[in-house]
Amino acid sequence: MEKSVSFLFGGTNFNRKKFAPDFAKFKNCTEEDDDSNKKLSFFEEEEEPEKKKNIVSSKKRKRKSANSEPVEGFDVFKSSKKALVEGKKEEQNTKNEILENSKKELNQRMEKDALSRKQYNIHVSGNNIPPPLKSFAELSSRYGCKRYILRNLAELGFKEPTPIQRQAIPVLLSGRECFACAPTGSGKTFAFICPMLMKLKRPSTDGIRAIILSPARELAAQTAREGKKLIKGSKFHIRLMTKPLVKTADFSKLPCDVLISTPMRLKRAIKARKIDLSKVEYLVLDESDKLFEQSLLKQIDCVVKACSNPSIIRSLFSATLPDFVEELARSIMHDAVRVIIGRKNTASETVKQKLVFAGTEEGKLIALRQRFAESLNPPVLIFVQSKERKGTL
Ligand SMILES: Nc1ncnc2c1ncn2[C@@H]1O[C@H](COP(=O)(O)OP(=O)(O)OP(=O)(O)O)[C@@H](O)[C@H]1O
């Protein structure tokens, strides 16, 4: 049997690779049983221990050096990754720088605006309020104002915008709703008519585009007069709602860009179906402290409802702004900017005031005559509460 085995394996080479699966079956056998293994260990032992040690240590070194020595491919990868990280860092730095600069610019602009507002006693509240005007020239440089308006301003002798004009005009030109409070005679009329004309751009071919409500006929007439001074040389039409106009006019045939009316007359025209306000883009409530008095509320409500254009811009101008007016205004306005010139609900600083205790109704008349005797030189304008009392003067 031994002979036959040696015969069988004599001069042949055992291809371990080829018979790897079979070889694996015998792998668990002990070394004594396995000749080939014996042979293998014999050859290993034949080498000098020193040499073996060297081999091992050189292997170790190799492995060690493989870890520490730079491999070109890996290095390229490493450096490209590094470059990528560096690039991203640089990009982030540039972004941060831009953000920082724009923040700085914004802060500088806000500081400048605040100083300018302080200079003109302008107080504002609301989000993203545009800067106040430095001059009328900015109307054309910042907002492309038509030449006819600037020409009319120059003809009227208006050199500088008044404080309310400085702030309310940019607010309205930026498409924001606004409620403004500024003393009597401070130029409120132009503060709302100028941006209105600028935003309307061209005369209307399609009905009324702006409404100005005034609490009294005289005030409405005065506003119409002021407005007409500004449209000189243009093809715009500013109309005052008169009694005959309420009765007879067919507004679908009457060219009208801006209509100025009292709430009562406008309500009558709306009820008589003589007027379509669905295309109105601007609604101004002038002297709103008077407009929001209880007796006019229903008429105002009727006008506000008839102006049904969803993108309408509403604004409110007044010499005083009582809390109830502000509350009512907020209920119909969206994201409105509040502009107050001077202190809210106080008279103009340029108007001298004196408080006189007159006692009785009779005493008032005596006190007034005394004032005339002392220092008042007619012509003098006297405001009274009722017509009856006017008769006693
Ligand atoms: N920028 C300006 N420079 C010089 N005068 C101006 C300027 N703006 C308006 N005015 C004039 O000031 C006067 C008062 O203006 P306006 O009637 O608009 O004031 P108001 O604030 O509406 O007053 P009220 O509260 O009585 O209605 C008018 O004669 C007007 O022409």
TrEMBL record:
InterPro entries in UniProt: DDX52/Rok1_DEADc (IPR044764), DEAD/DEAH_box_helicase_dom (IPR011545), DEAD_box_RNA_helicase (IPR050079), Helicase_ATP-bd (IPR014001), P-loop_NTPase (IPR027417), RNA_helicase_DEAD_Q_motif (IPR014014)
Gene Ontology CC: one annotated term: cytosol
UniProt domain DEAD-box RNA helicase Q: residue ranges: 138-166
Gene Ontology molecular function: any one: ATP binding
Biased composition (Basic and acidic residues): 30-42
A family per Pfam: DEAD
Spans traversing the lipid bilayer: none
Domain Helicase ATP-binding as annotated: residue spans: 169-339
Gene Ontology BP annotations: maturation of SSU-rRNA
Region of interest (Disordered), ranges: 30-71
Gene3D superfamilies, per database record: P-loop containing nucleotide triphosphate hydrolases (3.40.50.300)
Catalytic function, reaction form: ATP + H2O = ADP + phosphate + H(+)
Motif Q motif location, chain numbering: 138-166
Name under which the protein is recorded: RNA helicase
Species annotation: Eutrema salsugineum
Lineage of producing organism: Eukaryota, Viridiplantae, Streptophyta, Embryophyta, Tracheophyta
